Amino acid sequence: MFIRKLFYGWKDEYQKDVRYGLKGKKLFEHKSKFQKITIFESKRYGKALLLDNCWMTAEKQEKQYHECLVHPALSSAEELNNVLIIGGGDGGSARECLKYRELKQLKLIEIDKDVIEISRKYLSGIGNNCWSDPRLNIQIDDGIAWVKQVKDNSFDAIIIDGSDPKGPAKGLFNKEFFHNCKRILKSKGVFAAQTESPEAFERTHIESVKVIREVFKNADPLYGNVPIYPSGWWSWTFASESSRRYLNPIIARSNQISKTCEFWSPRWQKGSFDAIPAHLERKLKS
Amino acid sequence: MFIRKLFYGWKDEYQKDVRYGLKGKKLFEHKSKFQKITIFESKRYGKALLLDNCWMTAEKQEKQYHECLVHPALSSAEELNNVLIIGGGDGGSARECLKYRELKQLKLIEIDKDVIEISRKYLSGIGNNCWSDPRLNIQIDDGIAWVKQVKDNSFDAIIIDGSDPKGPAKGLFNKEFFHNCKRILKSKGVFAAQTESPEAFERTHIESVKVIREVFKNADPLYGNVPIYPSGWWSWTFASESSRRYLNPIIARSNQISKTCEFWSPRWQKGSFDAIPAHLERKLKS
Q: Could you give the ipTM of this predicted complex?
């Protein structure tokens, strides 16, 4: 009993004089070429992944993030022949994309191969069957550089599933990158990106939405909850050139997908696009 | 410098192997007849109130809670002659109610007079001018017993602003109490209650909504965010006998109130009633 207690402790993420911690024990830690990767077995949410001491995902608390990032885009894009994920090395976004039977090819560009290897080993429930799905093509590369050499109009949907704008994910929040995303996306395709917490990282959130709106004709933030992330309040932003088509899931697809979801539903999505706090609505207009 | 550091530390709320902490220093602690009352000066959110080591409110992070609890009810009730708050000793809900110029009388029943006294002294920005508003009538009493002796159809709106269902707030989550609230509420009045976190206290949340639905003909949960509460994801439930009138703010009132709000707006409210996670929608139907 005494020995067991020695192994259990608290692991906290610190942000701006606030901390959020889970009880459990560290299973594995590794310094990759890009970042510190930690696997922590938490009592509450199962095995969790941290990058540079920030909570990224956990086995029993990842659906609200991955469902909310993927489905507003994939349920509304005109076609699903070619879909691109930048980041997403834990496999959760790929798993949600591969639920669409009509999806033909899914390209995943992850900068850090160690994130994929460690996720496949320790967090196999998150990627689930995605790793063996023949439609998935993984490439280890810098997504910011990679998109520059892709041909115009190549993808039906693009999902940016990166971490906070520091370290390897820094360039995922700038205008040139978004311009390249627009260029390689079909005009009736849909772009999706996690755009940080409207509370803990309010300035980054507002700037990201504004920059995406400068690049795409149509773009809107959607608000939801990821309790392991700073403040628990999160956002994703969706964009498309031709129309605000991401507001309206295609019914046949949403009927197929809804059953498999714990958080996402067409109703939830409709509400979450409107659930913008008054002060942010004012700041985004100004 | 060394001495200053000695005073600063972390204060955490612990729930189910998760902790949420703020950096700062304890200013005051007192054991009242009902609970431990702590005032903590946090670096991030200013002075904060804890009851029995749980975060209740903080100067710079209380509007999302109080605006979301009060305005869906008060913007939609038929009249605002008499409004009742049970709990709410920090004054935040009273402040939001008193924004309505047509409100004539506001009764606040708080069980613990020390919460009011300490809030008035340390958190004066939360109650603000409410304490000197002649429309406010404070009574120190047990709200659960008090409602039993109130005449039928006495109030236009009832706001239940209690803490978690343990300690003095336990009886605020049961059927007999809700029945009394319905009895003393006018049929075109609106009932509002905080109904806990759909994540950290999922079972309590679901049971509360179900019981309120057994008592009132119409009742719906609304979902939002209070970062200092467990999981950051919170809910409030609104009910009315005559119709789901709480879904539709009266325009003249919402025009008056919106300008003063940081979080609440008719658009935010509309979205937040729909932003119900798929698994909860299924559980609430069953």
A: 0.94
